[in-house]
Specification:
Blueprint: E1 2-7, H1 10-17, H2 20-27, E2 32-37, E3 50-51, E4 61-62, H3 64-80, E5 87-97, H4 100-106, E6 111-116, H5 124-130, E7 133-136, H6 146-157, E8 190-191, E9 194-195, H7 205-223, H8 225-228, H9 235-248
Parallel strand pairs: 1-2, 1-6, 5-6, 5-7
Antiparallel strand pairs: 3-4, 8-9
The structure holds 6-chloroguanine.
Length: 249
């Protein structure tokens, strides 16, 4: 799978994507990155890519021309390689919120194009001309689309077969059984006076599993009560949860 990224800060994206698991998957040719500098496509003699907004207001707007010319160069390469016209994702707080199901959908594509905006946004006509999907990564405002593009690429790439090293299929539910993960411990047994929970040293697998499930329920209840309503719990686990809630009140 190939990820094309249109950006004014290519070195930021290159660095982010060449590290750790994604860097290794790239070396193994399971995924590929094509990071393109939008500034290379400006026709302005001063290499400018932004301008003042019509109608006034604060900040600058990225001009349509370099963005669309940059995209057309990418599209030409993709069509020449025999692939269909790609989906083009514009990273913007005005988009639909990213989630695991959307990642699964994008992971079925051969090629994806990400458009990273900066300043106060991009001329709407460029967006109308090339963009197929507008996506936000959450309800907060970042200075540009590079980090959101890297977040999306990380989430999508780990769904591509062979990217994760263990033979297991990646967990594609938001969270396993709609529960948050239980706490993990490794050596030493005592760290700054704090002991590893006794049950984990017992070697009793059924007891360990029960403890982990209960820890998951307790955490989910504290942090994400919206999830626990749809959690996949056994009758016995619901019983435990009910008693736990009563003991809390
Ligand atoms: Cl995709 N872009 C920016 N600038 N801020 C965001 C975002 C995207 N998603 C959440 N905040």
């Amino acid at each position: 799978m190939k990820f094309h990224v249109m950006t004014l800060f290519p070195e930021m994206v290159e660095h982010g994507l060449n590290t750790s698991i994604l860097g290794r998957a790239r070396q193994k040719n399971i995924i590929a990155f094509d990071v393109v500098d939008i500034r290379d496509y400006t026709l302005d003699k001063h290499r400018r890519v932004d301008d003042y907004p019509y109608g006034g207001g604060a900040g600058m707007v990225m001009a349509a021309e370099p963005v669309v010319r940059c995209y057309r160069a990418i599209e030409e390469k993709i069509l020449a390689s025999g692939c269909k016209k790609p989906r083009v994702i514009y990273l913007t707080p005005q988009g639909q919120t990213f989630h695991q199901e959307l990642a699964k959908e994008f992971a079925t594509e051969e090629e994806l194009v990400f458009l990273c905006g900066h300043y106060e946004g991009i001329d709407e006509r460029a967006i109308e001309t090339i963009v197929t999907d507008q996506v936000s990564i959450g309800d907060y405002v970042l200075t540009g689309g590079e980090l959101p593009a890297m977040v999306m690429i990380d989430v999508i790439a780990r769904l591509v077969p062979g990217v994760l090293n263990n033979g297991e299929s990646p967990e594609v539910e938001t969270f396993h059984d709609n529960l948050l993960e239980y706490p993990q411990y490794t050596r030493p047994e005592i760290f700054e006076g704090k002991k590893v929970p006794e049950v984990l040293l017992s070697g009793h697998h059924a007891k360990i599993e029960e403890w982990r499930r209960r820890q998951s329920m307790i955490r989910t209840d504290a942090v994400r009560p919206d999830l626990i309503e749809q959690a996949n719990l056994t009758k016995k686990e619901w019983e435990f949860y009910k008693n736990y809630k009563e003991s809390q009140s």
